[in-house]
Amino acid sequence: MRLEASILTRLVKSEDLNHHRTLFAGRAASWLVEASFLAAARLTGEPARVVCLQVHGMLFRRPARAGDILEIRSRVAHLGTKSITVHTECRRDGDELALVSTFATFVVLGDDDRAVPHGLVLSDAYLAEHRAICDAAAALRRPAPSP
User: Is pTM, for the whole model, over 0.85?
Assistant: First the structure.
């Protein structure tokens, strides 16, 4: 089981920009979901059977501009019986503050294209080391309070 971070590096080019001359949200979303998928697929070792079930929203905190080098880092944040939730952040190279962050949930498909149990477990040491993202992922699973 490979739990190290999956890291993508991207150069923001002119074709990645929106009408404000900042990184287009759709391009950023594509990069973050791709990085999230890589973390889930590496964990299972079966990328052909892993599919995205849900992107839990994206928080865009700061813009990126042409010429910025971005590091997109993904870590597994939660394992359900059939699901894998991944936390992904995008930072400008060398910056501590994330520009964009998201959670995405994936499942492993069986031969009938239905989600099947993956049999994976996060160790107590991993959960302790990554407590903040694991707690945030657990909060995604709680039902919203009724009005």
Answer: yes
